[in-house]
Amino acid sequence: PTTVAACAQLRKAGVTWARDWSMKWDVIEATEGTRDYSEIDRQVERIKATSMHPLPILPPQPSAAWASEAPDLELPLVERTAYAPRAEHREKLNQFIATTVTRYQDRVRYWEFLNEPLWVPWYCLPTNGGYTVDTYIELLKGASAAMKSADPTCQVLGGLSIMANSTLSDEFIQKGGLAYV
User: Fold this and answer.
1) Rounded to whole angstroms, how far apart are CA atoms 93 and 113?
2) 3-state secondary structure of 89
């Protein structure tokens, strides 16, 4: 829900959870080293004001444009941030996650890592970029550790469940991904 009125309507219907996409690394830290949480503060407070529980995706995509390993600098922003951070910036992703969890730990208990990774060929660890379940688990391992270091009692959500005929969730489980959620 993107407005207080929408939250209130959902709340009247008995919905108590609001999945939130606002915690984008590229929005909060558009320039390396400079973070602005003002819009995110408004989003979280709007959800909490209607007695709903926020379920942020932290982050919805794995990179900020400045950190992306996307091969083509001319890609649209949504596609650049879909690529993983370059190796030298992966720890910065985990630092961003830890800082964000620390900031909201009094208001948020559950954190989801990435939105639909590996599902769409050009979005969020795009398979056409060569990303695999192993890539996702590697990033999830760091993200989960960052979340738990910031708030040991938080719950980390993640995984790869898309369609019944997809084997991604089976591969995720077989390769030990459940250890991080």
Assistant:
1) 12
2) helix
Amino acid of residue 48: K
pLDDT, tens digit, 9 for 90 and up, residues 120-166: 878 899 998 999 999 999 999 999 999 999 999 999 999 987 778 88
Strand locations in the chain (E): 17-20, 53-56, 110-112, 155-157
Q: What are 144's two structure tokens?
A: 């989960």
Averaged confidence pLDDT in the chain: 93
Q: What is the pTM of this model?
A: 0.94
CA 165, CA 106: separation in Å to the nearest integer? 39
Query: Of 107, 106, 101, 61, whose CA–CA distance to 85 is shortest?
Result: 61
Question: Pseudo-torsion of CA 60, 57, 118, 69, nearest 10°?
Answer: 40
Residues 6+ away with beta carbon under 8 Å from 46: 3, 4, 7
Residue 130 burial by CB count (10 A; 0-12/13-18/19+): exposed, middle or buried?
Answer: exposed
Q: How far apart are CA 178 and CA 175, in angstroms?
A: 9
Q: Which among 108, 33, 32 has a CA at the least distance from the CA of 100? A: 108
DSSP for 24-45, written as a single string: -HHHHTSBTTB---HHHHHHHH
- Average pLDDT for 91-117: 97
